[in-house]
Design brief:
Shape: globular
Helix content: 10-25%
Number of helices: 10
Mean pLDDT: 93
Largest sheet: 6 strands, antiparallel
Number of strands: 39
Low-confidence stretches: 1-36
Oligomer: single chain
Distance between the termini: 35 Å
Strand order of the largest sheet: 10-11-12-17-14-15
Structural class: alpha+beta
Radius of gyration: 26 Å
C-alpha cells in the first residue's frame, strides 16, 4: 500500500477516536490472535457503549484548504437536515491540519486562523447547538503525521487535554507518528490519564495502526483502537483491512471496539456494490462508522447507503458482539453476528470478481432449532420465511445482509426463494452456451404463480431462449421449478465478463407478490491455444488489484497502466509475466483444456525491504497451489499448479496478513500449458 504523500515519510497515516471525545489507537502490524490471555477489562465510564458513529474529514479533504470552519459547520447542518443525526451519527471530527505548526509562547496549541477564524470552541459550540458532538485530532508523538509537522502531544498530554476539554471537545483521535520510540502503551496511557484529569467525558480513539497489538492491552486505555494501517478508497485496501480485523472479534465489546479505519463510502474509488459491502461488513464487525466523504457533494446513493437504518442497527446492537466467520471457501464468505434479541445478522459476502451462489443454514450461524425462521434482507427491506436454508446469488464484490430470527409469526411472510443457475455461463464469441437453473422454495409455505426468466445485456445483440418450462402454478415448500436456456453470444464480443439477469416472480399464500432479481456473470473468452502460452500475452476475464491495474510484463507502479519497471525479484529480471499489487486476483478462461500453470514468484525488488505477500493458484474455486508468506528478502520461488479440467484459473496474491503496504508482487515467467 502507498502512504499518502501528505504524510511524513515512513509514517503510516493514522486515525484516532476522541473520548466522548473519543480516542482511537491505530497501528499497522500483523494481526495475530493469541490462544490465551484475555484482554483487560474495559473502561468503566459509560462511553462508547456502541461503536461511535460520525464524520471525519481526512479521507475526503486531507490537508487541503477546503477543510475549514465552513465545512465543519456544513457537515453538522447536513447531519440534521439529511436525517443522519436521527439515524445515529453523532460525532463531527476534525483530523490533522487544524492547528498552526508551532505552539504559542505558553506552549499552547493554536488553531489555524485561516481555517478556523473563530477558534475551535466556537465550532464546538455550533456543533453542540445541533445536538451533536465535536472530535479533534493529535498524535502521540512530537509532531502529527502531516509533512507540515503540526505539534503532537507527546510531553504535552495534560496541557493539550485541558485545552481540548475547555474547547468542548467530545472525542479524541490520537495518532502514532513521530513517537520517538517511546513505548506505545505508555504513550497512550498517559493521554488516557490526562483526559480523565479534565473531568470531561471524551471518547478516546487510539490510532496506533495495530503495530503493537493494542487489542491485547488497550481495553482499559481507550474506547477503540485501530487494528490496521490506513484505508484507501479501493477494493483491495478495504478487503485487506476487513480480513485483518475479522479475526479479532473476541477483543471487541461495549466501550472497547476494534477499528479497521474510517469509511470510504461515496469517495468514488469503488462501485456502489462495493460500498454497500464496505458498509455491511463494517457493521457486522461492530466497527466505528465514521463517514469519510464530503457530505456537501454526496450523491443520493451515498446517503441511501450511509443512512440505512436496518444495517446501522446491526452495528449499533447493544450486545456489542463482533461478527464471526462461519465459512469462506473460494471467496464465498458467511459471517454471523449475534444480536441482543437472539437473532443473527448474517452476511453472505462475495469476495470474487464474478457472481457466486452462497448458502448456509440457521444452525450454522448459531440459531436454535425452530419450525421456521424469518429472514429480513437489510438492503431490500423485506421479510421472508425459511425452513432453515439461507442462500443467495451474490454479485461480484457484493454482500447480501440478512437478519434472521426464530420467529413464531413466520407464516405471515412469503416463502424465501433461491433462484440460481447450476453453474456459470461460459462461451466464446459467436457461439452458444446451454445453461440450466432452478427456482427453489426454501420456505415452509408454497410459492404460487411462479415465473422465471433469463435475459442478456441490453442492446448488445445477445439472445436467450428458454429450453423448458418457465412457469408453474405452484411450487411446494422445498420443491423446485427447473428449466434451461440457450445463450447466444454475438460474434465479435470482446473478452470479459458480462451481466445477465435471472428474474423470478411469485406470490405467497396470502397473495403478496415477490420479485427476485439475481445477477448472473457470463464469461466470454477464447480458449488458450494448444501448447505453452505466456499468461501476460493472454486476455483475462476479470482482475482486481490493490493499487493501479494489473500490468503485463512490468511491475505494478500503483497508478496508471504502464508506470511500472522491469519485473525483478531477488535480482533476477523477467521479460515476461504479470505485475500486481496485493490484494490481487486475475481470472483466465482455460476451457477445461489446460493442465498446468507455472511461474517464478516473489516481491518486486523496487520496494527495498518492504512488502510481504502470498501467492495462490485456484482452479474452479479450489486452491491448487500456494507459496505461504514471502517477503522482499526471499529469492524467487517456483510455483507449479495442476489445473487439469478447470474452466477458470485464478491467480491470487494476498497481503501476507499485515496489510497491503508496499506489496508489489511479480508473477515472473507466468505460463499456462494447454
Amino acid at each position: 500500500m502507498r502512504r499518502l504523500p501528505t504524510r511524513a515519510t515512513g509514517a503510516v497515516r493514522r486515525r484516532v477516536v476522541t473520548t466522548v471525545a473519543v480516542a482511537v489507537l491505530c497501528a499497522g502490524g500483523v494481526v495475530a490472535v493469541p490462544a490465551s490471555a484475555d484482554p483487560p477489562p474495559a473502561l468503566d465510564d459509560g462511553l462508547a457503549l456502541t461503536p461511535p458513529m460520525g464524520f471525519n474529514n481526512w479521507n475526503s479533504t486531507h490537508c487541503r484548504a477546503e477543510f475549514d470552519e465552513t465545512m465543519v459547520r456544513g457537515i453538522a447542518d447536513l447531519f440534521v437536515d439529511k436525517g443522519l443525526k436521527d439515524a445515529g451519527y453523532q460525532y463531527v471530527n476534525l483530523d490533522d491540519c487544524w492547528a498552526l505548526p508551532a505552539r504559542n509562547a505558553d506552549g499552547k496549541l493554536v488553531p489555524d486562523p485561516a481555517r478556523f477564524p473563530h477558534g475551535i470552541k466556537a465550532v464546538a459550540d455550533y456543533v453542540h447547538s445541533k445536538g451533536l458532538k465535536l472530535g479533534i485530532y493529535t498524535s502521540a508523538g512530537t509532531k502529527t503525521c502531516s509533512d507540515v509537522g503540526f505539534p503532537g502531544a507527546l510531553g504535552h498530554e495534560y496541557s493539550d487535554a485541558r485545552q481540548f476539554a475547555d474547547w468542548g471537545v467530545d472525542y479524541l483521535k490520537y495518532d502514532n507518528c513521530n513517537n520517538q520510540g517511546v513505548d506505545a502503551k505508555q504513550r497512550y496511557t498517559t493521554m488516557r490519564d490526562a483526559l480523565r484529569a479534565t473531568g470531561r467525558p471524551i471518547v478516546y480513539s487510539i490510532c496506533e495502526w495495530g503495530q503493537n497489538k493494542p487489542w491485547e492491552w488497550a481495553a482499559d486505555v481507550g474506547h477503540l483502537w485501530r487494528t490496521t494501517g490506513d484505508i484507501s478508497d479501493n477494493w483491495g485496501s478495504m478487503l485487506s483491512l476487513l480480513k485483518q480485523n475479522l479475526p479479532l472479534a473476541r477483543y471487541a465489546g461495549p466501550g472497547h471496539w476494534n477499528d479497521p479505519d474510517m469509511l470510504e463510502v461515496g469517495n468514488g474509488g469503488m462501485t456502489d456494490t462495493e460500498y454497500r459491502t464496505h458498509f455491511s461488513m463494517w457493521s457486522v464487525m461492530a466497527s466505528p462508522l465514521l463517514i469519510g466523504t464530503d457530505l456537501r457533494t454526496a450523491s443520493d446513493t451515498t446517503y441511501e447507503i450511509l443512512a440505512n437504518r436496518d444495517v446501522i442497527a446491526v452495528d449499533q446492537d447493544p450486545l456489542g458482539k463482533q461478527g464471526l466467520e462461519v465459512s469462506s471457501e473460494g471467496g464465498r464468505w458467511v459471517v454471523s453476528k449475534e444480536m441482543q434479541d437472539g437473532s443473527r445478522a448474517v452476511a453472505l459476502f462475495n469476495e470474487t470478481g464474478s457472481a457466486q451462489h452462497i448458502a448456509t443454514t440457521a444452525k450454522a450461524v448459531g440459531l436454535p432449532a425452530a419450525p421456521a425462521y424469518v429472514a429480513r434482507d437489510l438492503w431490500q427491506h423485506r421479510n421472508v420465511n425459511t425452513a432453515g436454508t439461507l442462500a443467495a446469488t451474490v454479485p461480484a464484490h457484493g454482500t447480501v445482509l440478512l437478519r434472521v430470527a426464530a420467529d413464531p409469526k413466520w407464516a405471515a411472510y412469503p416463502p424465501a426463494a433461491d433462484v440460481a443457475l447450476d453453474e456459470g455461463v461460459f462461451a466464446e464469441p459467436g457461439t452458444t452456451a446451454k445453461v440450466s437453473g432452478a427456482f427453489t422454495d426454501l420456505g415452509r409455505t408454497p410459492a404460487r404463480d411462479v415465473s422465471v426468466s433469463l435475459s442478456g445485456p441490453a442492446g448488445e445483440g445477445w439472445k436467450v431462449v428458454a429450453r423448458g418450462a418457465t412457469k408453474a402454478p405452484v411450487v411446494p415448500a422445498g420443491g423446485a421449478l427447473r428449466t434451461g436456456w440457450t445463450v447466444s453470444v454475438p460474434a465479435g464480443t470482446a473478452t470479459g465478463t458480462y451481466d445477465l439477469t435471472l428474474r423470478a416472480t411469485y406470490r405467497s399464500p396470502h397473495g403478496t407478490r415477490v420479485t427476485s432479481t439475481v445477477p448472473v456473470t457470463a464469461a466470454v473468452a477464447t480458449a488458450p491455444p494448444r501448447g505453452i502460452s505466456a499468461l501476460g500475452d493472454l486476455p483475462w476475464l476479470a482482475s482486481t488489484n490493490g493499487y493501479g491495474p494489473v500490468e503485463r510484463d512490468t511491475s505494478n507502479g500503483e497508478s496508471a497502466a504502464g508506470d511500472g519497471n522491469p519485473l525483478t525479484v531477488g535480482g533476477v529480471v523477467y521479460a515476461k509475466g504479470l505485475g500486481v499489487h496485493a490484494s490481487s486476483s486475475v481470472d483466465y478462461y482455460t476451457a477445461r483444456g489446460c493442465e498446468r500453470v507455472t511461474a517464478q514468484v516473489g516481491v518486486d525488488d523496487e520496494k527495498g525491504t518492504k512488502g510481504t505477500v502470498a501467492f495462490e493458484v485456484w482452479a474452479d474455486g479450489r486452491k491448487v497451489a500456494s507459496t505461504g508468506v514471502l517477503s522482499n528478502s526471499d529469492a524467487p520461488q517456483a510455483l507449479s499448479a495442476d489445473v487439469t479440467g478447470a474452466q477458470v484459473v485464478r491467480l491470487v496474491v494476498t497481503d501476507g496478513g499485515d496489510g497491503i503496504d508496499s506489496d508489489h508482487a511479480d508473477w515472473g515467467d507466468a505460463q499456462v500449458s494447454c
